[in-house]
Amino acid sequence: MNFFDELKRRNVFRVGFAYAVVGWLVAQVADLALESFGAPDWVMKTLLFLIMLGFLAALFIAWAYEITPEGVKRAEDVDPNQTIVHQTGRKLDRVIIVVLLLAVSLLMFDRTRVAPEVVHQTPSAKITEPAAAPGNTVTGSTEQRETKTIAEEQSVAVLPFVNMSSDPDNEFFSDGMTEEIINALTRVNGLQVTARTSSFAFKNHHRDVREIAEQLGVTHVLEGSVRKAGQRVRVTAQLICAKDGYHLMSESYEGSLDDIF
Prior knowledge:
Layout: H1 3-9, H2 12-37, H3 41-64, E1 65-68, E2 71-74, H4 85-112, H5 137-153, E3 155-158, E4 162-163, H6 170-186, E5 192-193, H7 196-200, H8 209-216, E6 220-229, E7 232-241, E8 247-256
Parallel strand pairs: 3-5, 3-6, 4-6
Antiparallel strand pairs: 1-2, 6-7, 7-8
C-alpha cells in the first residue's frame, strides 16, 4: 500500500475536507457577527490564523491516531482486522453533507439580505421647489430630487487628525496634514467637502461622530491620527458612515518626511 492509499484509508482526506468546510463556515459566521459588533480587524485575522493552525493539527491527528471501540489509539497500535476506519469515514461523510447544507444556507442568506433604505431628513431645512414650467410638469422636480439625493450621498467632513506623538509641537504638523487632505478631496469632482473652519470647530471634542455629521450636514466623516518619530511618519485614516457610525475604510500610510505628501 502506497502513501496515498494509506492517507485515504486513515480518512486524512475526509478529515481535511470536513475541517476546511467547518472552518470556512465558522469564519463566515464570525465575520458577520464581528461586523455587527464593530470589532477591530485584528480579531478576525487572529481567528483565521487559529483556524489555519487547527487545520494542520487535524491532519496530523487523523494520520497518527484512530478511533476504536476501546477509545482513541495510535494508528500503528491498531490491528488492521479490528479497525473501524470505514465506519468513521461514513460518519465524516454525513458531517460533511450537513455542514455543506449549512454553508449553502448561509450563502443564500448573505446574498439575499438587503440593507433597509434610510431617508435622512433635516426638520429645519425646507426646500421650495420652483413651479413647473408648461410641458415640464413632474419630470423636472423628480430630476431635481434625484440630483439632490446624489449630492447628499457624496459629502464628507474631514475632522482634525489627532497628534499621537509625544512632542506637542507636532500638533501643527497634524493640522497641516488635515488641511492637505481637505484640499485634495475638494478637487474630487462631485464630492462636497465641509470647509476647514467648520471641521476644526470640533477639534478636541470627544463627541459621537453621528452627532458631528448631523451638525455638519454630511453623510460621511473622515478622521484619523498622525504619529511622527524623527524622519518617519505614520498617518492612520478611517472613513465612517454617519448614519450608523460604522467604519467603511481604515488604512495606515507610513513613509519618510521626504515623500510624505
